[in-house]
Amino acid sequence: AMAGCGWARAVRGLLLDVSGVLYDGSADGGVPIAGSAEALRRIKASGLKLQLCTNETQATRENFVRKLRALGFEVSVAEVTAPAPAACGLLRERGLRPHLLVHHDLVPEFAEIDKTNPNCVVLGDAAENFTYANLNEAFRLLIGMEKPVLISLGKGRYYKETDGLKLDVGAYMKALEYACDVQAEVVGKPSKRFFESALAELGVPPEQAIMIGDDIENDVGGAQQCGMRALQVRTGKYRPSDEQHPKVKPDAYVNNLAEAVDIILQQL
Amino acid sequence: AMAGCGWARAVRGLLLDVSGVLYDGSADGGVPIAGSAEALRRIKASGLKLQLCTNETQATRENFVRKLRALGFEVSVAEVTAPAPAACGLLRERGLRPHLLVHHDLVPEFAEIDKTNPNCVVLGDAAENFTYANLNEAFRLLIGMEKPVLISLGKGRYYKETDGLKLDVGAYMKALEYACDVQAEVVGKPSKRFFESALAELGVPPEQAIMIGDDIENDVGGAQQCGMRALQVRTGKYRPSDEQHPKVKPDAYVNNLAEAVDIILQQL
């Protein structure tokens, strides 16, 4: 066993964030992070259970998996836990009919959901669909409801694409929360319910699972709240100032996914 | 004297909000609120001092006054206190060079200000200029500053135009505040400094002035914080739920400006 790697003991399953861990995204695809495709293969060969736990809402899971496979990652739709399917479950449970302000490529995830006469707004990372007109439309629907219901697919501040930083869904969530004086319900990381559903897919209890991500709050903080260990990779949107975060401290930092997998497999 | 109108005694000057009090705006002009042009004439004929105190940032004061005169309101540029000129004063004082995310018709107000190599962002009600690209640009400038400075021309939640409610600058301010983890400096109502400059223009101390507006927080709350009395009109964006506001209670409600002026003039 390696010294100082107690955090890697008694692991049976891994939850992996995707953007910033497996690859760096861009509007037209993205580029793999060095060593991550090989690391994914080693996880699968080791017998460890694996689930991707992503806040990706710019594509259906089918198209997301197609993109990942094109980049060299051997994953299946069943291995992806994402906010849109979780939101569909919540909408059905509560009889909610959404107005969607999401990326146009995400719309098919809501194909089976009744969207007539909306009684809530579902907000995703709509990217180019974040127009002045679309934001006003979502706002008017919310303010016109007796009790406005705003469901946000994640609450990230920003993310990094190959051409620079972009405002994430959380910024637009805050705009609508303020204008309507409501609090959004967040589906996706860091919500406890979302991590629990990813763990259920993984089939491993939290104390035997490790989350690996680049987002100190949404990945690391959220997973730790569920009783999991969590690593922050120094790739993706990681910034050195994250290591002084006032509230969240990862169980360990690793330079990248490949390094994390090396250490974990040595402890098996 | 009318019963229950003690709030109208000992008045020497009025501060009036404009949109929702004098007229309801629209992209191509707007429509006067019934009785408000006549009420404005009666104020001027009475000898009461008058100042318009607006968070309007979709036009220069010159163009704003031109629009008001076309709608039948006899006002001059000197009678308008607006955020952009106040912001220019602040930028000069502190040697700040702004990146502007404002309505294109407001840009001339900043003609004399150095805008090279920006070290702050000035945010106004940019309307159609609130595009995804422009919001990302402002965000990247801010997050790239060692100490981000965000100056917001007002912090309204929303306002009403003839074709419906629109998100106001405050919603976009919250989006950038959250993404950059900064607190904006607000120039305009409800800032105390802004009301004090309007009172200075009015030439009347706060205890002899009344603010009349349709915004429970920015007009009524802000003016009361400065020691003025404040009325809420039941026109513009007024909603019955405003009367249950948890923190702000107007000195009186009036149906519209005409009713307020009737009562005030009877007490002179």
TrEMBL record, chains A, B:
Q: What cofactor requirement does the entry state?
A: Mg(2+)
Question: Source organism's superkingdom?
Answer: Eukaryota
The EC class name is: hydrolase
EC numbers on record: 3.6.1.1
Keyword Cytoplasm assigned to the entry: answer is: yes
Q: What is its main location?
A: cytoplasm
| Keywords, sorted A to Z | Cytoplasm, Hydrolase, Magnesium, Metal-binding, Nucleus
Name of this protein: Phospholysine phosphohistidine inorganic pyrophosphate phosphatase
* UniProt organism field: Orthonyx spaldingii (Chowchilla)
Q: What is the lineage of its organism?
A: Eukaryota, Metazoa, Chordata, Craniata, Vertebrata
